[in-house]
Write a structure and sequence with these properties.
Strand order of the largest sheet: 1-2
Structural class: mainly alpha
Number of strands: 2
Distance between the termini: 23 Å
Strand content: under 5%
Helix content: 55-70%
Number of helices: 15
Order of helices and strands: HHHHHHHHHHHHHEEHH
Shape: globular
Radius of gyration: 22 Å
Largest sheet: 2 strands, antiparallel
Length: about 425
């Protein structure tokens, strides 16, 4: 069977990573429109859809990328290496701002960090033989773990979990499920994981705390993170990580549901019938998610089972709409900007995490008050964008959109020159 690119899936991926870029790069974090922020705890904003949509899209892509469903040691090695490369790229984002080199500071240190970034990026996204990829990925992971647990002051609290790390884990599990199990087994696995996670979070007492609860910082997932990830969690939290250990379990089901949708798209039947099945599946998932929300609230940080069903339902409906417009009605006009984002997500994900940190390192006296220091990122926003807007929130959004515009131009150049960066 010949692999075909599903344009609607590429567009959906592009829309998702574009929204991620807007959400992650406001001009001013103190002035952001509420829909562009995560829910404080229970609940779901448009921002809370970005991550689960990525996981879902990755699941959909698995059967489309491996239509022959052939498994051997070579296939397993490819899946393992790709997962490990994604995992290592994700951890590097957390290391970048902590890298120390021979006592360097300021611009010299920034140059050193950028040089290391280029080296790591090439090692993890470059084209090498499977053996070299394997050696590089395992070596980089070993260096990360050594630095994190070596007692070196600069790295003693570096965060180890993260978005790309979770995607890597889900990709590994979902790919093996696809190649080694039937759809019935995949459905049962997903149901067991969701029900098992619900039971753990609502029935098992929290050691040192008391009865099971879903409160911030005192639930079972937080307790597990405080034990297994002590000192290496998200800086904005104390006892838990939003991409922690237990909450990774239900996120696998986002990938499994995406996998099941991908297999619907892979069937030898009419496109209309595929769209109908997807639409029904998405509607049912949304309904089940909202019903489960009544007893197990939709919560992105806990990645609750209701959150899984609700977000995969929405993702399925959105993909169905795009599939109908682009792949059935063959209407592609106006989707090219999202397509060029969707075919090259990894370079955006990698570089957009590094660039803001690099710009913050470039510091100089403020034009308004030479006695105070400012950084290049803040300077560009305060003097080149914010003055044109009376509303601080509008200015902040404009800052994000300018960043998106720059990336769109870069990705257009890559697209025209057929440059696609993969792990």
């Amino acid at each position: 069977m010949v692999k075909e690119r599903l344009i609607s899936l590429d567009v959906f991926r592009g829309l998702t990573i574009l929204l991620m870029t807007i959400v992650n790069n406001p001009g001013d974090w103190g002035n952001v429109y509420p829909p562009l922020l995560h829910a404080d705890w229970h609940g779901c904003t448009p921002t809370d859809l970005v991550f689960p949509f990525f996981v879902f899209i990755m699941g959909v892509a698995v059967p489309l990328a491996m239509p022959d469903k052939f498994y051997d040691d070579t296939t397993f090695s490819k899946i393992l290496i790709r997962s490990l490369r994604m995992f290592c790229l994700g951890i590097f984002f957390n290391f970048f701002g902590k890298i120390q080199l021979f006592g360097l500071e300021g611009i010299p240190l920034l140059i050193g960090r950028i040089a290391i970034t280029i080296a790591v990026g090439y090692a993890l996204m470059g084209s090498f033989s499977p053996k070299i990829k394997n050696i590089l990925a395992f070596s980089i992971l070993f260096i990360y773990l050594f630095l994190a647990y070596s007692g070196i002051e600069a790295y003693h609290d570096v965060r180890l979990p993260g978005v790309l790390q979770r995607i890597a884990i889900v990709y590994f599990v979902v790919s093996l499920l696809y190649l080694k199990t039937s759809q019935k087994t995949q459905i049962i696995t997903g149901a067991v994981l969701l029900l098992g996670y619900w039971a753990m979070m609502t029935l098992i007492p929290v050691p040192g705390i008391g009865e099971a609860n879903l409160d911030k910082g005192t639930n079972l997932a937080a307790w597990a993170d405080s034990i297994l990830l002590k000192g290496h969690m998200y800086s904005g939290t104390v006892t838990w990580d939003p991409e922690g250990i237990l909450s990774t379990i239900p996120s696998i089901v986002n990938g499994i549901i995406g996998l099941l949708i991908g297999q619907i798209l892979q069937r030898d039947t009419t496109k209309i019938l595929k769209a109908q099945k997807m639409g029904i599946a998405g509607t049912v998932l949304i309904f089940l998610g909202l019903m489960w929300d009544l007893v197990f609230p939709i919560n992105k940080s806990l990645w609750t089972s209701s959150y899984v069903l609700y977000t995969t339902g929405l993702a399925t409906v959105f993909l169905t709409i795009l599939y109908y417009i682009i792949d059935i009605a063959d209407y592609k006009k106006g989707f090219k900007p999202f397509l060029i984002w969707g075919v090259n997500p990894m370079i955006v994900f990698f570089a957009s995490q590094i660039i803001p940190q690099a710009l913050v390192m470039i510091q100089f006296p403020s034009p308004k008050n030479p006695e105070e220091q400012t950084n290049l990122l803040d300077f560009l926003y305060r003097f080149w964008i914010a003055p044109f807007f009376s509303s601080p929130m509008a200015a902040s959004l404009a800052g994000a959109l300018v960043y998106v515009g720059i990336w769109t131009f870069i990705l257009w150049i890559f697209y025209k020159n057929k440059l696609i960066f993969k792990v």
